[in-house]
Write a structure and sequence with these properties.
The protein is mostly beta strands. It has 1 helix and 67 strands. The two termini are 44 Å apart. Keywords: Signal.
């Protein structure tokens, strides 16, 4: 289950108070919260054009009328603030003041803007708070010499830089292990929120204890996928991104960090108990198989454990034979390791050699169960006369969820296509039930004759129980499980003007209404929408929000106000052949990470993707309502990470970084590519970049009929009618993609905002900048470590992410 240099930098501090909210900003409660100003009268609450408004009616050329949002909101001297208001000017003009006051209420300074026009307009006033400022307020105003009537709605104030806080929360486990009475569920956190272990009583189905997983500032623990109960009853957890091993003794209030797995690089992917309280584990990215025994780590076998492996992704242990089975990747391998003699035997059936990973292993009922993609292999392990071992396939069960139950009465249980199924080991047959557990199970156990599973559902953690003898079953929500923030992986603006955010690993979707958030930045303003896995990109087009999610490059769409979860339209992971990689005469491999989206006026949606583990060739997927989707090879050995539609064609940019697990990480000697696809002819063309071997073209967008893009630290621009004639402008030094390879998939963003027709805005390398459309001169607006992504609201505010927190930078053209 996978369930953002030529100018001085902005130095305004980011305050941690989320949105500044004017009481009764939309005049829904009449004039409550708005103090009289200037001449008496002239202001009244009315409904205008279907809105609740404040009408400022000025018929006297010698008088001034207005109302001010007093008392003001907290403000800091030296910081920039901007007021926005929606106003319909029936006659004359409408004025908006942004006012700064001291601690005694004295007026220290103000800025002014006005607008006219018989339609709903947004008027903006911006200024820097002077020395001594304690509060900021807004004044709606009709000045002396003005005669006219204006209707005011939604008066809002924003700081220049605002930390809007956590947007997505999760309460689902990544890993689960059991003892006779309890489930131990591991809940993933973020770089700023430690993961937690929940102890859940299987009888009462309630949390009896929550334990925070400790870490240090130099070795932060974010989460984990590995949990195991040792023979002495201790619970072990394997975590990332520091390969730490933890032990929890049931009943205690805290757990112990045992240190980093020997040689482990970032992940402990799996743990298995051995005899005598031992625990075995596997790591990424050095492909190490290790043992923890009596206070010490020991590497077993070579490093990597299997030649060429970066992952020891899954482990199963046969205690009777003291043999451990290792499932590795990126090129799938399955080996039996004899813990007594050190002998290693390869068991992977030849038909599955093209897979990238053995994603799950279990030894139960005298059989080895191996998960490859969504196929569950049931293997007999047979000793040959010469002492070697081989595997014979009893069954290959497709579309089976991971994991499955321990063997009981000759059967194991698992979920397939939403229904609970059993597999009979003797008869080698699969039997479906009518039971729908309604959760992604992270672990099974048996309590007496009852099968018990724990896992993630759309509403949180659920516990599932099924008694085969009677057919009785239940699926119940577990209350009081840990609720932790989820890191933001993608963000975009919906057609409703709201800012949507997609969660990393545990999925989930956050929704933020610009300038209407609450003052609590440690939890979302609105409940997290569940039902989607990790989102990699978003786009508004055709009145919909398109959402592209990992794994398997799934394309969804959502119409604001419509049902949630969104509608699934296409799955790039189902396209292509696992043995292909866009080689001669080949098609694309299955796709996985959809980092790029573009839309055509005719309703067609284009998706650019990174392939599945171990492959290099990304692809271009094409979908339109009522037509079957398709996925095309574009540039062999390169991923597609940026797209733009312009001049009747789709233009794409590639990255020379392949999927996770390829070695070397970047295609040797390769240069990123610009390509075009003509939907009328189906023609694909590549266009040479006048740059020295950029590793990636991470951004493309249409600007005034031209295409703008980012290739490394350079801006590229061209006419879509003449894509071979490309102009380059150096903006920054090329990013260091060697040390931060993930940025070669998603480092840059370019966009335009209606409030500033003279500039294009962008992010690259922890910086927000703007570029003059006419001169290409660049100005850095803000620098913040860890900044990624960029989208804009209807006021022109720019949004980006740092970890689990959404930030806004208010643009003042």
């Amino acid at each position: 289950m996978a369930f953002v240099l030529t100018a001085a930098l902005a130095t305004s501090p980011i305050a941690h108070a989320a949105d500044l909210r004017i009481s009764n900003s939309g005049f829904d409660d009449g004039l409550s919260g708005w103090s009289g100003s200037h001449s008496p009268g002239g202001v009244a609450p009315v409904v205008w054009e279907g809105r609740t408004t404040a009408r400022v009616e000025d018929a006297d050329a010698a008088a001034a009328y207005g109302r001010e949002s007093l008392p003001g909101l907290p403000a800091t001297a030296g910081s920039r603030y901007t007021a926005f208001a929606t106003v319909w000017t029936e006659s004359g003009s409408a004025g908006l003041y942004l006012r700064f006051r001291g601690s005694s209420g004295q007026l220290l300074g103000s800025t002014f803007a006005s607008v006219s026009g018989r339609r709903w307009n947004t008027v903006t006033a911006s200024g820097i708070a002077p020395t001594g400022t304690a509060t900021v307020s807004a004044l709606i105003y009709s000045g002396v010499a003005n005669v006219g009537t204006a209707y005011w709605d939604e008066v809002l104030i924003s700081k220049e830089a605002t930390d809007l806080g956590v947007q997505i929360q999760s309460s689902v486990p990544n890993a689960t292990t059991f003892d006779a009475d309890n489930a131990y569920a591991l809940y993933t956190g973020t770089a700023d929120a430690n993961p937690r272990l929940a102890v859940i009583d299987l009888a009462t189905e309630r949390v009896t204890r929550t334990v925070t997983i400790p870490d240090t500032a130099t070795t932060p623990t974010v989460g984990g996928w590995a949990a195991a109960t040792a023979t002495d009853g201790s619970v072990y957890l394997g975590t990332y991104p520091n390969s730490m091993l933890y032990r929890y003794v049931p009943g205690q209030a805290a757990m112990t960090s045992l240190g980093r797995a020997e040689g482990g690089y970032s992940f402990i992917w799996d743990l298995e108990p051995g005899a005598g309280g031992k625990v075995y584990g596997g790591t990424y990215n050095d492909g190490r198989y290790f043992k923890y025994d009596n206070g010490a780590f020991t590497t077993i076998g070579g490093v990597p454990a299997v030649a060429g492996a970066e992952y020891v992704r899954s482990i199963a242990h046969d205690p009777a034979a003291n043999a451990t089975y290792l499932g590795t990747g990126t090129n799938a391998a399955l080996v039996r390791f004899d813990n007594v003699t050190g002998r290693t035997d390869s068991l992977l059936p030849a038909a599955y050699a093209h897979n990238s990973m053995v994603g799950g292993l279990t030894w139960t009922g005298g059989r080895l169960f191996a998960r490859l993609d969504r196929t569950l292999l049931v293997l007999q392990v047979i000793r040959n006369a010469d002492g070697s071992y081989q595997a014979v396939t009893d069954a290959a069960i497709t579309d089976a969820d991971l994991p499955h139950s321990p063997e009981r009465d000759g059967r194991i249980w698992f979920v397939k296509e939403g229904l609970l199924h059993s597999y009979d080991l003797a008869a080698r047959t699969v039997q479906a039930t009518t039971v729908r557990p309604g959760l992604d199970v992270t672990g099974y156990t048996w309590t007496g004759g009852t099968l018990t599973g724990l896992g993630a559902a759309t509403d949180g953690t659920r516990i599932f129980k099924y008694t085969p003898a009677t057919g009785q079953w239940s699926s119940r929500l577990v209350p009081d499980t840990p609720v932790l923030p989820a890191a933001i992986n993608a963000l975009g603006t919906g057609p409703d003007g709201k800012i949507y955010t997609g969660g990393y690993l545990t999925g989930g979707t956050g929704v933020y209404d610009p300038l209407h958030g609450d003052v609590d930045d440690n939890s979302p303003d609105t409940p997290t929408l569940t039902g989607l896995s990790q989102t990699d990109s978003m786009m508004s087009a055709h009145g919909r929000l398109y959402i592209a999610a990992y794994p398997s490059a799934k394309l969804y769409s959502h119409t604001p106000g419509g049902p949630w979860p969104p509608t699934l339209h296409y799955t790039g992971g189902d396209a292509g052949d696992k043995a292909h990689d866009c080689g001669a005469g080949q098609g694309p491999p299955p796709q996985d990470r959809p980092y790029a989206l573009a839309a055509a006026p005719d309703g067609t949606v284009y998706m650019g993707t990174v392939p599945k583990y171990g492959k290099r060739s990304g692809a271009l997927s094409i979908w339109r309502e009522g037509l079957p989707g398709r996925t095309l090879c574009v540039v062999p050995d390169q991923a597609v990470v940026s797209l733009a539609y312009a001049g009747g064609k789709v233009f794409g940019g590639t990255s020379t970084r392949g999927a996770l697990g390829v070695n070397p990480v970047f295609a040797p000697g390769a240069s990123a590519t610009l390509f075009s696809y003509d939907p009328t002819t189906g023609t694909l063309r590549t266009h040479p970049l006048p740059l020295i071997a950029p590793k990636a073209v991470t951004a493309l967008t249409e600007v005034d009929g031209q295409v703008w893009g980012l290739a490394g630290g350079s801006l590229i621009t061209f006419d879509p009618a003449r894509p071979d004639t490309i102009t380059t402008t150096r903006l920054f030094p090329d990013p260091d993609y060697t040390s931060r390879a993930g940025l070669a998939w998603r480092d840059g963003v370019l966009l335009t905002i209606p409030q500033d027709p003279d500039h294009v805005y962008g992010t690259l390398g922890d910086q927000i900048f703007k570029v003059s459309r006419s001169t290409k001169a660049m100005t850095v607006l803000r620098t913040a470590a860890g900044m990624e992504g960029l989208t804009a609201d209807r006021f022109g505010g720019l949004y980006y992410r740092i970890g689990e927190r959404l930030h806004r930078f208010t643009v003042t053209p």
